[in-house]
Amino acid sequence: MSETTGSTGGKIIHIDMDAFYASVEQRDDPQLRGKPVIVAWRGNRSVVCAASYEARQFGVRSAMPAVRAERLCPNAVFLPPDFPRYRNVSRQAREIFRRHTDLIEPLSLDEAYLDVTENKTGLPTATQVARTIRGQIRTELHLTASVGVAPNKFLAKIASDWRKPDGLFVIQPEEVDSFLLPLPVSCLPGVGKVMEERLKSLLRATRHFHSERSEESLFQQAPKRLDVPTVADLRKVDLATLKSHFGRYGVRLYERARGIDESEVIPDRPTQSISAEDTFERDVLLTETEPMIRKLAQHAWAASRKESRIARTVVLKLKTSDFKILTRSHTPPSSPASCAELVCIALSLRDRVGLDPGQRFRLVGVGLSNFRDPEDGSAQPALFT
Description:
By secondary structure, this protein is of the alpha+beta class. It has helices at residues 20-28, 53-56, 66-72, 83-98, 126-141, 153-160, 176-180, 193-200, 231-235, 239-246, 248-256, 290-304, 339-350; strands at 12-17, 37-39, 50-51, 77-79, 104-108, 111-115, 145-150, 168-170, 203-204, 207-212, 215-220, 224-225, 273-285, 310-320, 325-331, 360-372, 383-384.
């Protein structure tokens, strides 16, 4: 495969703190070091927020139901998450990042992209910047991070996973093809088990011209099934076929197979939405959700007060006992002016859920979206969806 890959020519670092929540717990309590630690609330509906590498050896993973994690690792130490503490450590890590660049795009408390095409410390290469940052995290925070360095964000993200935990992996521009093409398609962001199966069943219709008695006719052959286990195989699939199967995501697959990612590192990305949700201990009727809605609205309101922009839209999310998700939203003529008003709107949205009164729900969420600058006073008509 000699096709030229498309890289931005930049120097991008992706930093991923190793087992972040669990590592902070182990750092702060020496008795936990070397033990399997699972950060999660106990309960039938709880999920794992983080698992130490000792727990991962038993198959425990983030987002796994806590009851399953306990079955896999019965000797694990379960700890309730302490998000204020984790946020404080995350801020300390970002202060280290800012010594080297102002172009920082946080993805979560434990993950960020850095554009070090030009760095503030005068180090000659992105690799040296990455190595310095890892050293500062280890020395000052007593934590470890896995880091990927590459010409763009997509490749840097893959690289940071390559030598976890506590690893550094660099993809030079001239090494993109040799690194990328042998990878299984499951390494590409967004390609999970379902997408992997869909790629295995891709059909491509082929056409050819047949000439008979000087008259050309167009014949359609039977669709050809494609086998796409690796990125190299994916690169052989034409753009039209990928678009016909996957729409806009097909374009993304086409680009990723060629190492193309033109997206920039965007610092201080404006907040698009804020939400709080929780799972009930047992499935409840819609009429029983009010106390939880009030509690979640308070959390969402408190978080929104930290933003310089104002939310226009209130969103209510519900998940039924059979895992169907419903959302209702309302954009009033003016933004909610108080937590009480937010609660009132959220409860009115609940009343617009037209399901059987006997339907039970396992989760509820309250959110704020459609953030605008305060000076943007343009009123919008009320809208229910």
